[in-house]
Task: structure prediction
Amino acid sequence: MFEVYEPMEDSLLLEKHVKKYSRNNVLDMGTGSGIQAIAASRKAEFVIAVDISNESLKKTQKNIENTGIKNIFVFKSDLFSFFDKPREIKNIKNKKIRNFLLKKPKFDLIVFNPPYLPKDQGIKDKTIYGGVKGHETLEEFLSQTENYLKKDGKVLIVFSSLTNKEKIDEIITEKGFNFKIIDQEKISFETLFVYSIKRSEVLESLRKKGLKNIKIFAKGHRGLLYRANLNKKDVVVKTKLPESKAKGRIENETKWIKKLNEKNIGPKLLFSGQGYFVYNFVKGEFIVDFIEKNKKKDIIRILKDVFMQLYKMDKMNLDKEEMHHPLKHIIVDKKPIMIDFERCRKTKKPKNVTQFCQFITSTSMEQLLRKKGIKIKKHEVIGYAIDYKKDMSKKNLNKILNLLK
Ligand SMILES: C[S@@+](CC[C@H](N)C(=O)[O-])C[C@H]1O[C@@H](n2cnc3c(N)ncnc32)[C@H](O)[C@@H]1O
Result:
């Protein structure tokens, strides 16, 4: 049985934003006492309020009657199920609402304060259970939301840190949306988050281009990577984090990868668009893992290859900027492929080769290479790196390469 969810801190926190965001046609999912529907009704043309529980619907109806509001319409629905019941919709007396709901309804704003607690919290009220893990109802809601949201529509949700926030972030993204945390509040044992969610234009245009199974792959300081399939091949999509304020970085990286691809450097760029680029997934191992597992001869071949690529970059006056600590920047399969050109920039004094010298002479690398039978003569490498810095010639590069044995 369901009880009615009397407004709590989460309701009040969400209500504040519903008042701000509501416009035209609003859907209040899981209306409970009707608090969000009432808040939305002031600015909306009309509000459709639904709930799975009869008690909630009765309560909402009573609360609406008490306020005298005329533009809220209440229906029983398990998530969006009511919108698929034309026989019931045809019985709605209000013509405008009947017609709106008969033509696959799309809303400007959808509000949901979902039941979000995992079952093991020991709380008896079933209006707040979101499933065994807590996020299942929200996940199901987000799987269907796309069908009921206008192109520029927004979704507001509130949930607690007692639910797995990372998981919710992942679900939102996997369903093709972007989110912004627009409010948060600490209450006794939990933090409440209010999210504003909208369609991700990037993900939408990627789907149109045929990308399938788009899943979050890695999150950096500014960039967000997705893995996906394109014509049965694995690809990676790089976009900026929705919350990142940095401008033009994706465009910058796309430009340099294009140029570097001409010299066989970097992952193969497939195509790019506003705010994203797509490249072939680079399989292999990060450089240190590769060194740990391979033999002297192969390690030397790979290190020399990296040096050659870095030399080409030096000659292009491009600085990758992170080559003194490239642990996650070089992936080795048959050959080494550098990834992540986020900080790449044009400069008169590129430091790619010299930074890589710093890397291979670092204590941990020196030890690792020694274990593999490669003795790095630190002082000689540094001496030749200084010569190279003064004159970035092939001859000076070769002096460094000749020390790798
Ligand atoms: C946390 S309460 C929120 C109530 C109210 N919107 C508020 O902000 O105070 C969650 C509400 O969702 C309703 N609900 C739970 N599962 C639902 C489902 N599958 N479809 C529709 N409503 C559901 C519950 O009955 C409950 O009223």
Q: What stands out?
A: DSSP finds 15 helices and 17 strands in the chain. The two ends are 75 Å apart (CA to CA).
